[in-house]
Structures are given as structure tokens and as C-alpha cells.
């Protein structure tokens, strides 16, 4: 078999093999059972003592969400001002300037919401201080926020009827001390030994064979790159993200980065099943997510390996597939795999230029982000999936002639209302955002702004439409990757995506947690032969159909005008 | 009262057609958000049609007019579905109401005289008098007397029934006829407030409230509608970017096709049809919610007598003690039962008759009959010639025998045990304090009842038999009939406790009852079905009244409830699944002019953009009347387990919903293509 294919198969298998025990371990950590990392308890207790937190205090879902939103707001304000003033602060050996307010607004939001859209470039836009104490800090805490929210959701279904859903700070701190921090150290060490810089010195330079002086940015990057993947953040130390030779030096580092971005999302699904003692349900959810991933990955592989007809016409042979925008050390197969996982989970790091992918590759990437729950981001993937599941529970419950119920709790008007609102939110943000952008581009292309709208797209037409659609989709999904042909560092994109990011992050966290909280407080109904079981193949198929149909119906016209139109034109 | 089961009776269709137009009133339409947006779209198209007559850019006025017409039809079809369901329900209720039109009533005055009044003048608390041949003017409770009554006007059952004061069979219904004797009846409801009146109001819509599941579904459908509003509104700037002009007609057509009009149009019809089906089963429901809850029932409490077994126990065998001739024993049995008016006593004489010992003689003159009392638990006869025959429960007779110093035969004792363990009831007979033998009484289980319980088990409903029998007998019958659990030696409070226990575990319980002492349990149960013959208190406490007094009716009610939910669920799935094909018809049609490559998406090979859009909206409109019969009859419920049922319905209505419009739109396009 083709070595390149073997490479990604091995990567995926390794991911699953590592994720399963990790998931079981996580379920124990959050259930408060004995685990080998308990030696960290004194550290956690110290943190709680220092912050004056009683980590034993039980919270209901509303108190959880209040805690979550408050601390996120604190980070937002703190980070915004540091980014604005970074030029005046220490640890800035390259003398990079402070951010403009709109860029700082966009950047801080995008890091708080675990997106890392990055309308700046790491080499010139930030200092080592902000990389460390704002951006990397947020990469840890935003991932931990998502995981803690998911654990609150788990907790609602562990007991029959309960409103005591554990303590937010407890979940949050443990997500970092027991999961993110140890794994990040491990991954950072591997990356450092593979050539990723870990120095506090400023730019290095050398004289190339042509005789030019080349400045090479560096910095303490390895730790940043580790949490960027483990926390499904995706924001690169360098502008070129993991396509950069120092950020992702070899095939091995590429494998490590691919594995580390997928293990926690898969582990969270497994943890869900073990935590609520319904392993079969978790495996069914994992099955749906995995099939969904392969349905996006296989056509991506085929479209990338098939090569580009425009290049074929020029008489260039493409034995390895479409190579435009790809790194030779990874090749199209590993790049296609990366581009799939980075869009289905909300990492958004890249090891190839998504803008250069084949039209259909763009379609699958967009779909992956629109669905946003085939594994999905750290913690939030399970929450997103839960919304689809509730809709599926409701419709199929009716179809078997019973008031719909999930895990013994009746799903009624209030829960459906929340689920419907969250379902509505994504198409609203993505389509309305893209529509406003398209409107401005079409009707006000010459507006006297610092960056004229007509210069946004380096490739107008169908592909340009895809670039705008991609940017909004990526923001709504808190993904952070981009079709980089878009000129996005200007007031319009910084501000509009900033709002999409905020809404696309917090409402889809609050919604599922609220539904879970409401359901968990309801009377528990034991299963009978008439109860629709949610851990069966049939129900999984139903959920899959709901995911597919809801997304297809919401985005078909937009996708037809972007990637589909481009594809049919190119291959006509 | 059985009425024709035809779906579309001409008279009803006529009323419904008229109602379809009356319901166009936006103030009424707004209750149904999905169809309300279609109505707005229709209004916009009316304007566009007029506008396009003297402006260019919005297509031809004729084409716009046709789209307008199709959209108007869509709304009318939906209104018609609701109207025909209402009309059918009303017709059904009216036929019941006819039985209680103005009838003369003999009002009993304080001075004891009667005065003729019209039934509509009777108020709650009034007392009226009825004798043989009178039609009972209104619902009430017998306070004095006993009468045989013909209830066929209500139940369709021709055999007369006995109603008497005091007991659990004291209720009479307006419109029924007294056949013999005379009764005094106290009016129990104000005019216009009887259950039937409430039911009619429910069907007519004035007081029809959406059920919880209906509300939840409406929210979901409204959110789908909102998603499609977003999709269609944003399409305008998208098209501008792609240098394509989209006419208002195309945009509105796309919108109307995408929103779930099929289920939106049929939703209220489905709900009304559910209540109507209950009414056709002769069950009056006090709310739509009760029907829906019935579908969720986990536990069904059923009285043994009348539901599981036919009426009362019957004598099936005589077992004389060793050495006694069978005839002597049978004769003694007959003698002891001559004065026994209970069904058991009668059955003993019947059985004796079949064994060649008909009771030709009456009891000897001057015989003293000993009545059954709870204390002695035996009855019998003392004849003038000194025979003292007693029959009764085993231990009471043994007491009598042993007290007199006589031995109690071992073979009788064994026979008693054998009978009891077979679910029978042994009656021991003794003469002059000497045991003679045992009469075996057996319950006769209704034919076909165990199949019904099997069906309920597959639905996930647990059946519980309630009986006054001892646990041994109860267990035998429970096993034989196939119920899952039983309450033996049940007192009214036992029922109540059982219901509460199940409810604490989160289960929904249904029960049927008639007596006043059932009332608390009926109120406690999630679905309480009172028999129409039952007391007023029982009828007030329950949330349904069964006009047929048929205890197996609960099973039908559960199925009606399930059918109601299934019909909603499957039509929602069908409606949403339809959208896939509609996209493939309309999206290429919108953009083909400026992006010819999108012709590849026209996988149905539709004739032209105009015909494609028109075919899609026509399909969208006619699918509503096509599905009206299904909405009214309900999707069949099959007790095959939840997962299998989901698979089946997902296949038929999900996959079918994806495929059907591809075929339908293509066929319509072939026809439309001839003209466009």
C-alpha cells in the first residue's frame, strides 16, 4: 500500500488508541475517583485557597454559566489592553508594534473563544510577552472552559434527577492540571527535540546562497504549538502556522500535531459514556462522528490526489496529486487528512494552504466547520452534537408514538425551544455575515475605507465568494483557519467576525448546558419496551440524517454559489 | 352512535370548503406560523402580479399570477385540512348532541308535584321524574328508584341496562330512554356544560388549546421557517455578487417550497382527528392533552371482572366427597342455591341442569333462607323437614363442621386446595354440619384478551389486574390471561397506592373506573377513564368518559394517542425530507442563466427554470390534499418495538420523503413543460 496512505491510517489508529484510555481517565478525574495524577491535589488546593474558592460547593447550571461567563469577560478585558500596549511592555526583542483597536478586539475575542482566527502574523504582530501571557494563556483556559462546560453537561445525566452539577472551578482547574498541562509538556518536548525553537532571543539571520540576508523569527514556540493543538485552538506561533518549517519541522512532528489535536475531542466522547455509565451510547456517538469524518475525508483525499485539470492542461504531470499550496515534506495525503481533522474539530491550524485546495476540498472543509461536531472542539464538540441529538430525539420520539425522552428525561417545549434557537444560530451568523460582506463588496466596493472592499478578494468570482463564506463559517465554528486569499485585517472583518465569534462560542455552550440542566432536574422515567433507545444503530442513523439534512438545507444555496459553481466550471 | 366512516362526505366537504376561505383571515392564520408566512408570500405575489403588468424585470404577469394562484391554493389546502377535520369532529359530536335536543322534563317541585318543563330549562340540582317510556331529558344521578334503560342512542348497544340509586351505576345520560319502572334524577350539570358540550367546544376550536407536544413541534417548525427566511433573504446579496437577478416570484417560491408547509398545513388537522378518532371509539375526552398522554402510558390498571374475565365466576364442576352419590350432592347444592340470586348461585343451578338435575321443584314451603353475610361467609337454607344446608367459603364451613364435633373429610380438603391452585373458587357444601363436597367455580377469561395484552406488552405498556380475589386465585388468572402484575384482595385505596408508587418511579398510569370510591384513583391516574354508567364523582375525576362502558377501551385509547404522535412525527420527517428534491429543482433554476455550469445540479433534467420552479411549488401545494386522508386516519401504529418502528417510519417517510418529490416534480414538469 501507498506509504502516504499508511501514514495517515497509522496516525488515525494511534489517535484512537491513545484517546480511549485518556477518555476513561478523564471520566474518573471528573467523577472524583482515584487516579494516579492525584499527587497534583495539593497544587489544586493551593490554587483554590489562593483564589478563595470552595471547590466543593455544588452549582446548578445557571451558576455554572455565570461563573464561566464572568471569568471569560475578565480575560477578554485583560487581554485587550495588553495587546494594545504590547510595544511598551517587556519581552519584545523584535520591537513589534501594539495592535490597532479593531485588530486587538478581534484577536482577543478569537483567543478567548478558542478560535484563533489570527488576522495578524505571529512574527510581526505580537511580542513574546503577549504570545505567552495572553495568547498561550488563553489557549489553555479557553480549552479548559470548553471541557468544564462539557463536564457540567455530563454531570446532568449521571444521576437520575439532580440540580447539583458539581463545581465549575473544580472542573476548570482540573482540566488544566490533570489534562492540558501534562500533555502539553510532553508534546512540547517532542517538538523541541524535532527542531521547533524554544529560545527567548529575537530574530536570527543568515546569508542565503543567493547572497540575500534572511531574517528568521524564532521564540519560545514549542510549548505554544503543543497547547495550540491539544486545546484545539489552532493559532500558530508563526504566520504560516504548521506549514512553517520551524512550527512543524518533519513528518514525525506532523503526526504528533495531528494526533494531539484529535485525542481530546475523541476522549471527551468516551469520557461522556463512562461518566454517565452508558458506554454503548458513547460508542454510538463516536461511530456517527467517525463515519461523518470519513465521509468528509475520503472525497477530500480523492479530490486532492486527482490533481488539478488546469495544471494537467499545461502538460504538467501530477503523479503525487495537487501540490499547489502544499509542503513537500507532508504531501497531499497528509495535508488532506490534516485539512479534514482541523475543520471537523475546531482547531483551524493548517499545514497547507486551504485557499489552494481543489474546489471540492473547500466544500468538504466548509461542511466540516458548518457541522462542527464530528468530534468537534475541546468539550464543545460533544455539546454541539447534543443539539443535533435533541432534535433527532424529538422527531423520532414522535415517530414511535411517545413523548420524546432522552436518558429518562422528557424533552418538552422548553428544551426544543433552546435547541431550535441554537440550530438557528449557525445559519444566521454564517449566512447573514457572508451576505453583508457580499453586499458591501458588490455595492460599496470603492468605499473610502483604509482597506477598500474591492481589494478584499485576491480572486473574485466563485472562489472569492468561498473565501468570504469560509471566513464567516470559520468564525462561527470557532475554528480559526482561513481561506487566506481574503484581506481580513481591516475594520470590517475584524469587527464583524469578532461578533460572530462571540455569539458562535457562548450561545452554543449555554444552550446545551441549559437543556442538560433542565432535563437533569426532571423526573426520571425508567425505560420500557416502548421507550426509544438512543444507543442503537437506528437512532444513530437518525441523528446522522438530522445532521446531514439540517446542514444541507441551511447551506446548499451558498455552497452552490461557491465551491460547487467553481468545481462545475473547472471540470466542465 | 356510529356514523359513516367515509372521509369526505359531500355535506362536510361543502362546509369545509367554505371554512377554508373564512380561515384566510390573518388573525386566525397567525396561530399557525408556517402557513401564515405562506399567506404573506401569497399577498406579496398578488402585488408583484399587478406590478409586473406595467413594469419589467419581474417576469411575465401571467407567470406571476400562476405562482400567486398556486400559493393561494397551498394556503387553502391547509385550511381545508383543518376545516374538514373540524367538520368531521363536529358532525360526530352533533349526532351525539341530537339525542339530547329539547325533551320535555317532569320537574319535581318542592311540594312533591311534577311540572312539565323543557330540558333546556333544567338547572344543576333540579330533580326530575322519569317513568317507563320517557326520554331522560339531561345528565343526572338517580336519587331514588331503579329502572331499566335503553342506552342505544349513545352506545349503539341494544341490550337495556339497569341503573339504580346509591351504588356505582347511578348515572343516567340525557337522550337515553327509560324502559321500565320509575326513577327520580338529580340534574348534575348546567346546560351547555356537559362533557359532550365541552368536547364539541374542543373540536370547534374556540377552546382548543395546543397540546405540549404540539407546542414543541410548532416551535421547531417555526425555527425551520426562520432558517429558510435567512436562506432566502441572504440569497439576494449572494445573487448580486454573482451578477444574477432573482425575481421575487422565484425567491418566494423557493421560500414556500422550503418551509415545512406539509406538516404545517396538516398539524392542527392531525390533532383534531385524534380527538375525533377517540369520539368515534365512543370516548369523550376532556382535553386534547389527555389523548396525547394516553400514548405515553406505561402502566394500565384493569379490573378483572368484565375486562379480563367475562362477568362473574361460573360453577364448572361438582366434587362430592367419597361415598356420596353425585346426584344427592347436586340436589343439595341446588336446594341451597334456589334462593341465591347471585350470578354464582344461578350458575350452580344452570350447571345442575346440564347434568340432568333440573330444579323442577321450588323450595319446600316454610323454608328459611339464610342470606350471605360478610360475617358468616356462607348462605343456605333450612327446610321444614329439618335439613340445614350451608354453602360457603372453605374455612367457614369447616368451622361449622368441626364445631359440631364432626370430622372434616380429607378428600374435600385436598379438592379445595386443588381448585384454588387452578384459579378456581371452591364452595364447600355441608348438610346438618356434615361436609358433602365442593362446588368448583371458575372465572372465564375473555377470548382474545391475552393477545391484546401481548400487544400492549410490545407497546411497552405494563398491565395490572385488579381483583378482590385471594392472591392464589389472582395469580392463576393473571398467568392465564397474560397480565404482568396483579393486585389481589384489592380495596379502593390499594389502587390509589399502586398508582402513586408507579408515578413516583416516573411512570404514567391509566385506569378505568366507575364507582365513587374510584374517583380519587381516577383523579390521581394520568389518564382516568370513567364509565358513562359510573357515578358523577367518577366522571368528574377522570379525564375521559367512555360511553360504551367497555373496560377494554383503554387499549384503544392508548393506540389512538400513539397514532396521534406518530402521524405528527412522520409527516414532519416527510415534509423536511421533501426539501432535498426541491433544492435540486429550484437552485439550478435560479442561477443557470448566469452560471451555466450549475446545469450539472439539475439532476432531474427539468425543462426550463420557469417550469422547474412552477413544478416545485405545484408539488408543494398538492402534497397537502394528498396527505389529508393520512392525517385524518392517522399513520398506523404497529407494536413492533420502538427501534423497529423508527426504522420502519424512517424508511417510509424519511427515505420516501426524499424520493417522492423527485418523481413528483419530474412528472409535473413533464406536464408543465408542454405549456411553458
Q: Which structural class should the secondary elements of chain B be placed in?
A: alpha+beta
Order of helices and strands of chain A: HHHHHHHEEHHHHHHHEEHHHH
Portion of residues in beta strands of chain A equals: under 5%
Assembly category? heterodimer
Shape of chain B: elongated
Number of strands of chain B: 21
- In what order do the strands lie side by side in the largest sheet of chain A? 1-2
Count structural domains of chain B: 4
Proportion of helical residues of chain B: 40-55%
How much beta of chain B, percentage-wise?
A: 15-25%
Largest beta-sheet characterization of chain A: 2 strands, antiparallel
Structure description:
Chain B: This is Potassium-transporting ATPase ATP-binding subunit. The complex is a heterodimer of chains A (572) and B (676). With 572 residues, chain A is mostly helical. Chain A has a domain of 191 residues. Chain A has 18 helices and 4 strands. The radius of gyration of chain A is 23 Å and the shape is globular. In chain A, 60% of the residues are buried. In chain B, strands 1, 2, 3, 4, 5, 6, 7 and 8 form an 8-stranded antiparallel sheet that branches. Chain B has a 7-stranded mixed sheet with strand order 9-21-20-19-10-17-18, sandwiched between helices. A 6-stranded antiparallel sheet of chain B has the order 11-16-15-14-13-12, sandwiched between helices. By secondary structure, chain B is of the alpha+beta class. Chain B has 22 helices and 21 strands. Chain B folds into 4 domains: 278 residues, no CATH class; 68 residues, Distorted Sandwich (Calcium-transporting ATPase, cytoplasmic transduction domain A); 111 residues, Rossmann fold, CATH 3.40.50.1000; 133 residues, Calcium-transporting ATPase, cytoplasmic domain N, CATH 3.40.1110.10. The longest helix of chain B is centred in the last third of the chain and has 39 residues. In chain B, a hairpin with a 2-residue loop joins strand 15 and strand 16. The chains are: A mainly alpha (572), B alpha+beta (676). At the A-B interface, helix 14, helix 15 and helix 18 of A face helix 7, helix 15, helix 20 and helix 22 of B.
Amino acid at each position: 500500500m501507498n506509504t502516504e496512505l499508511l501514514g495517515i491510517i497509522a496516525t488515525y489508529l494511534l489517535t484512537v488508541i491513545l484517546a480511549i484510555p485518556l477518555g476513561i481517565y478523564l471520566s474518573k478525574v471528573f467523577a472524583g475517583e482515584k487516579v494516579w495524577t492525584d499527587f497534583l491535589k495539593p497544587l489544586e488546593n493551593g490554587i483554590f485557597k489562593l483564589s478563595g474558592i470552595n471547590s466543593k460547593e455544588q452549582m446548578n447550571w445557571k451558576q455554572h454559566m455565570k461563573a464561566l461567563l464572568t471569568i471569560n469577560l475578565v480575560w477578554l478585558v485583560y487581554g485587550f489592553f495588553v495587546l494594545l500596549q504590547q510595544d511598551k511592555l517587556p519581552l519584545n526583542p523584535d520591537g513589534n508594534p501594539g495592535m490597532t483597536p479593531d485588530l486587538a478586539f478581534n484577536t482577543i475575542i478569537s483567543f478567548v473563544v478558542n478560535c484563533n482566527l489570527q488576522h495578524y502574523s505571529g512574527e510581526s504582530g505580537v511580542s513574546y510577552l503577549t504570545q505567552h501571557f495572553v495568547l498561550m494563556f488563553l489557549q489553555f483556559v479557553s480549552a479548559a472552559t470548553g471541557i468544564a462546560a462539557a463536564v457540567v453537561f455530563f454531570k446532568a445525566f449521571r444521576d437520575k434527577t439532580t440540580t447539583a452539577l458539581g463545581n465549575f472551578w473544580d472542573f476548570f482547574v482540573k482540566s488544566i492540571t490533570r489534562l492540558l498541562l501534562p500533555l502539553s509538556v510532553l508534546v512540547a518536548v517532542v517538538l523541541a527535540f524535532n527542531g521547533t525553537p524554544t529560545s527567548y532571543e529575537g530574530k536570527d539571520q543568515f546569508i542565503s546562497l543567493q547572497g540575500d540576508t534572511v531574517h528568521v523569527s524564532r521564540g519560545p514556540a514549542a510549548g505554544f504549538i503543543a497547547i495550540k493543538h491539544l486545546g484545539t485552538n489552532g493559532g500558530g506561533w508563526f504566520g504560516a502556522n504548521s506549514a512553517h518549517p520551524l512550527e512543524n519541522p518533519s513528518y514525525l512532528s506532523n503526526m504528533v500535531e495531528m494526533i494531539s489535536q484529535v485525542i481530546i475531542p475523541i476522549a471527551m466522547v468516551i469520557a461522556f459514556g463512562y461518566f454517565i455509565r452508558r458506554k454503548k451510547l458513547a460508542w454510538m456517538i463516536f461511530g456517527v462522528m467517525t463515519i461523518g469524518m470519513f465521509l468528509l475525508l475520503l472525497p477530500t483525499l480523492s479530490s486532492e490526489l486527482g490533481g488539478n485539470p488546469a495544471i494537467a492542461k499545461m502538460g504538467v504531470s501530477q503523479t503525487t496529486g495537487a501540490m499547489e499550496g502544499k509542503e513537500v515534506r507532508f504531501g497531499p495525503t497528509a495535508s488532506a487528512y490534516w485539512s479534514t481533522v482541523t475543520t471537523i474539530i475546531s482547531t483551524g491550524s493548517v499545514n497547507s494552504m486551504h485557499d489552494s485546495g481543489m474546489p471540492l476540498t473547500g466544500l468538504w472543509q466548509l461542511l466540516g466547520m458548518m457541522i462542527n461536531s464530528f468530534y468537534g472542539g475541546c468539550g464543545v464538540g460533544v455539546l454541539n452534537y447534543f443539539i443535533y441529538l435533541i432534535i433527532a430525539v424529538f422527531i423520532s420520539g414522535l415517530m414511535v408514538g411517545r413523548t420524546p425522552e432522552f436518558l429518562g428525561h422528557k424533552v418538552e417545549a422548553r428544551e426544543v425551544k433552546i435547541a431550535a434557537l441554537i440550530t438557528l444560530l449557525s445559519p444566521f451568523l454564517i449566512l447573514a455575515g457572508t451576505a453583508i460582506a457580499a453586499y458591501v463588496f458588490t455595492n460599496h466596493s470603492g468605499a473610502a475605507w483604509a482597506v477598500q472592499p474591492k481589494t478584499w478578494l485576491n480572486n473574485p468570482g466563485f472562489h472569492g465568494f468561498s473565501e468570504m463564506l469560509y471566513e464567516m463559517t470559520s468564525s462561527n465554528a470557532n475554528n480559526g483557519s482561513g481561506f487566506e486569499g481574503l484581506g481580513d485585517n481591516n475594520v470590517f472583518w475584524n469587527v464583524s467576525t469578532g461578533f460572530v465569534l462571540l455569539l458562535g462560542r457562548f450561545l452554543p455552550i449555554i444552550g446545551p448546558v441549559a437543556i442538560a440542566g433542565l432535563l437533569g432536574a426532571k423526573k426520571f422515567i425508567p425505560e420500557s419496551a416502548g421507550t426509544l433507545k438512543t444507543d442503537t444503530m437506528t437512532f444513530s442513523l437518525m441523528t446522522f440524517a438530522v445532521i446531514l439534512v439540517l446542514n444541507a438545507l441551511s447551506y446548499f444555496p451558498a455552497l452552490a454559489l461557491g465551491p460547487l459553481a467553481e468545481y462545475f466550471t473547472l471540470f466542465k | 352512535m356510529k356514523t359513516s366512516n367515509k372521509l369526505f362526505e359531500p355535506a362536510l366537504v361543502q362546509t369545509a370548503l367554505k371554512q377554508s376561505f373564512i380561515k384566510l383571515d390573518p388573525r386566525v392564520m397567525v396561530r399557525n406560523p408556517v402557513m401564515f408566512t405562506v399567506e404573506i408570500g401569497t399577498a406579496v405575489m398578488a402585488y408583484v402580479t399587478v406590478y409586473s403588468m406595467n413594469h419589467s424585470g419581474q417576469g411575465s404577469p401571467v407567470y406571476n399570477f400562476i405562482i400567486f394562484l398556486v400559493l393561494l391554493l397551498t394556503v387553502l389546502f391547509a385550511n381545508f385540512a383543518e376545516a374538514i377535520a373540524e367538520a368531521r369532529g363536529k358532525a360526530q359530536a352533533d349526532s351525539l348532541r341530537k339525542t339530547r335536543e329539547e325533551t320535555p322534563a317532569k320537574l319535581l317541585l318542592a311540594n312533591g308535584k311534577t311540572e312539565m318543563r323543557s330540558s333546556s330549562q333544567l338547572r344543576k340540582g333540579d330533580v326530575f321524574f322519569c317513568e317507563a317510556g320517557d326520554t331522560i331529558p339531561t345528565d343526572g344521578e338517580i336519587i331514588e328508584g331503579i329502572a331499566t334503560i335503553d342506552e342505544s342512542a349513545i352506545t349503539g348497544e341494544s341490550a337495556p341496562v339497569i341503573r339504580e340509586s346509591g351504588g356505582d351505576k347511578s348515572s343516567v345520560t340525557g337522550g337515553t330512554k327509560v324502559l321500565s319502572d320509575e326513577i327520580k334524577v338529580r340534574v348534575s350539570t348546567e346546560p351547555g356544560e356537559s362533557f359532550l358540550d365541552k368536547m364539541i367546544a374542543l373540536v370547534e376550536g374556540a377552546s382548543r388549546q395546543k397540546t405540549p407536544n404540539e407546542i414543541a413541534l410548532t416551535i421547531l417548525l417555526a425555527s425551520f421557517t426562520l432558517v429558510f427566511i435567512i436562506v432566502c433573504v441572504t440569497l439576494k446579496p449572494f445573487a448580486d455578487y454573482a451578477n444574477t437577478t432573482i425575481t421575487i416570484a422565484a425567491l418566494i417560491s423557493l421560500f414556500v417550497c422550503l418551509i415545512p408547509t406539509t406538516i404545517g398545513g396538516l398539524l392542527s388537522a392531525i390533532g383534531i382527528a385524534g380527538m375525533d378518532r377517540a369520539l368515534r371509539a365512543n370516548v369523550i375526552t376532556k382535553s386534547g392533552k389527555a389523548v396525547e398522554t394516553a400514548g405515553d402510558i406505561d402502566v394500565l390498571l384493569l379490573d378483572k371482572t368484565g375486562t379480563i374475565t367475562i362477568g362473574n365466576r361460573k360453577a364448572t364442576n361438582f366434587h362430592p366427597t367419597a361415598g356420596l352419590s353425585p346426584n344427592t350432592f347436586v340436589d343439595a347444592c341446588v336446594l341451597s342455591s334456589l334462593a341465591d340470586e347471585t350470578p354464582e348461585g344461578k350458575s350452580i343451578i344452570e350447571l345442575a341442569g346440564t347434568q340432568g338435575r333440573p330444579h323442577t321443584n321450588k323450595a319446600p314451603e316454610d323454608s328459611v333462607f339464610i342470606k350471605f353475610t360478610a360475617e358468616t361467609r356462607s348462605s343456605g337454607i333450612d327446610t321444614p323437614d329439618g335439613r340445614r344446608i350451608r354453602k360457603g367459603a372453605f374455612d367457614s364451613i369447616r368451622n361449622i363442621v368441626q364445631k359440631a364435633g364432626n370430622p372434616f373429610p380429607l378428600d374435600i380438603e385436598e379438592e379445595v386446595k386443588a381448585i384454588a391452585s387452578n384459579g378456581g373458587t371452591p364452595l364447600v357444601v355441608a348438610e346438618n354440619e356434615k361436609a358433602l363436597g365442593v362446588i368448583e367455580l371458575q372465572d372465564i377469561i375473555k377470548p382474545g384478551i391475552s393477545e391484546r395484552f401481548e400487544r400492549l406488552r410490545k407497546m411497552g405498556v405494563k398491565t395490572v389486574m385488579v381483583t378482590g380475589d385471594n392472591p392464589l386465585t389472582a395469580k392463576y388468572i393473571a398467568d392465564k390471561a397474560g397480565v404482568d402484575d396483579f393486585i389481589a384482595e384489592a380495596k379502593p385505596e390499594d389502587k390509589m397506592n399502586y398508582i402513586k408508587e408507579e408515578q413516583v418511579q416516573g411512570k404514567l398510569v391509566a385506569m378505568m373506573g366507575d364507582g365513587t370510591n374510584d374517583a380519587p384513583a381516577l383523579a390521581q391516574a394520568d389518564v382516568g377513564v370513567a364509565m358513562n354508567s359510573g357515578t358523577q364523582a367518577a366522571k368528574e375525576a377522570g379525564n375521559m368518559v367512555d360511553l360504551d362502558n367497555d373496560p377494554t377501551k383503554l387499549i384503544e385509547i392508548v393506540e389512538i394517542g400513539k397514532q396521534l404522535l406518530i402521524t405528527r412525527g412522520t409527516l414532519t420527517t416527510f415534509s423536511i425530507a421533501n426539501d432535498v428534491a426541491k433544492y435540486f429543482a429550484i437552485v439550478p433554476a435560479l442561477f443557470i442563466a448566469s452560471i451555466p455550469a450549475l446545469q450539472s445540479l439539475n439532476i432531474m433534467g427539468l425543462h426550463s427554470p420557469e417550469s422547474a420552479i412552477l413544478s416545485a411549488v405545484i408539488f408543494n401545494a398538492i402534497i397537502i390534499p394528498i396527505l389529508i386522508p393520512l392525517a385524518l386516519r392517522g399513520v398506523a401504529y404497529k407494536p413492533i418495538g420502538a427501534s423497529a418502528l423508527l426504522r420502519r417510519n424512517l424508511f417510509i417517510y424519511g427515505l420516501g420523503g426524499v424520493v417522492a418529490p423527485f418523481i413528483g416534480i419530474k412528472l409535473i414538469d413533464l406536464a408543465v413543460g408542454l405549456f411553458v
